[in-house]
């Protein structure tokens, strides 16, 4: 079948200062652009209030893990788009002494869940059932995760950490222009799901102040009673009662049984870098490892940043890595995952043997690799470095924007729609277009596969970068490109974060470029090699929040202007 290459030239997206894809290397004479520079500690997140509260906690004697609890809950207040109590996430850490680890507080399928719960009598997926409404939610893990991490490594009392967040919820936060647009865009579906009188049914405009008293009261109970308030206390009872009245299947037993899990992170080398990323049920660490190791033999710097050759090589590595991701990866507590084989140098070299610099490889010709033994823009990431030298990369989500759109008015937060990250049916794409397989099928108590990729990078044995992003299926490729931008092309942290990005995920077989970043030469070269380029609008790919440790020990924050991210430090 003939395939047509589509391109779209659109008006400049205001307030997003993207560079343009070009076949030329960046000018050597250009003055480097830097983000916020701090002497001792830094937080970079999706909201200034959350970053500043994290810094406030560290100034009061807390460390990165105390700041994690404060920042995460402040995002739940000010960024309900993805910040949450009703969702989950992953955190990768590196202590000042070099010890590394990670915590998995991903949601779980309720006990009553089963593999065919979103299929009709003909075995077809019922549209919307896994994305909207109470049946779309997994058992939340956020409160368990932040309490588990803080209890093990933190220094302050949770009550003291949460008080500034409670004050923020009571006193309110100002709605930004971007946020007003998001709230207005989901207003009707929130009313449809929750009724006319639900909190976010109101029309919120830029400049309005939102005071979430219900959330403040929920956080006060949690501050007084600890994590068990959410999983076994009054909050748990309210949550279950509300969800079951709406047709959900989460029970008090499901909440009481939930535990966060400590995981060994994925660790691999890329040239002189040591990359530390999240293990399954995140697909991030394995997939980013495959991508970087497949492109490692190529002279990327010699090709030029975002040149046609560079785009092609990285695209072909992405294509092959995502084919493996979609087939082999799932919850390691339920399926055997051949991680060492998937990251084996010989295996990855073999995967790239079919690469032809003269033409595109068809995704129809790329299946999962043969080894011995088989997600969202609507996410948020934050990066933390404390003055002791402890580092955290944390990515958390409700999955879709405002999750399942179920809002618990009595508690003040949205519930997730993470059940969509399972394979509702093998071979059928989820809301991000990702194809799933048996390894990621639904089962009671199972964690769903994720693209979230919180990542730390060491250079010369020392911490060099903390990085992560929202972006659904584009998270992995955005993180990979940010690392390559800084390492291969000597960009500052801010430049590496702002540089234009592209994405390929095996299926659908097309390269996604950000709007207004393509030049005609690049299009002509890739088109001549039979690459399909996105026809539709792709305004942004990811929204990276990152920190770089500079040679003098100072910290540079990279706050992505694609969203209203902000760095704070001292």
UniProtKB/TrEMBL annotation:
Q: Give the E.C. number(s).
A: 2.3.2.2, 3.4.19.13
Sorted alphabetically, the keyword list is: Acyltransferase, Glutathione biosynthesis, Hydrolase, Signal, Transferase, Zymogen
Write out the catalysed reaction: glutathione + H2O = L-cysteinylglycine + L-glutamate; an S-substituted glutathione + H2O = an S-substituted L-cysteinylglycine + L-glutamate; an N-terminal (5-L-glutamyl)-[peptide] + an alpha-amino acid = 5-L-glutamyl amino acid + an N-terminal L-alpha-aminoacyl-[peptide]
Q: In which pathway does it act?
A: Sulfur metabolism; glutathione metabolism
| Posttranslational mods | Cleaved by autocatalysis into a large and a small subunit.
Q: What is this protein called?
A: Glutathione hydrolase proenzyme
Please tell me whether the keyword Ligase is annotated for this protein.
no
The record, for InterPro entries, names:
GGT_bact, GGT_lsub, GGT_peptidase, GGT_ssub_C, Ntn_hydrolases_N
Q: Which family does it belong to?
A: Belongs to the gamma-glutamyltransferase family.
Q: Which PROSITE patterns match?
A: PROKAR_LIPOPROTEIN
The protein's assembly and partners: This enzyme consists of two polypeptide chains, which are synthesized in precursor form from a single polypeptide.
Q: Which Pfam families match?
A: G_glu_transpept
Q: Which GO terms describe its molecular function?
A: leukotriene C4 gamma-glutamyl transferase activity
Q: Which residues form the signal peptide?
A: 1-22
Hydrolase recorded as keyword: yes
The lineage's top-level taxon is Bacteria
Q: Which PANTHER family match?
A: GLUTATHIONE HYDROLASE, GLUTATHIONE HYDROLASE PROENZYME
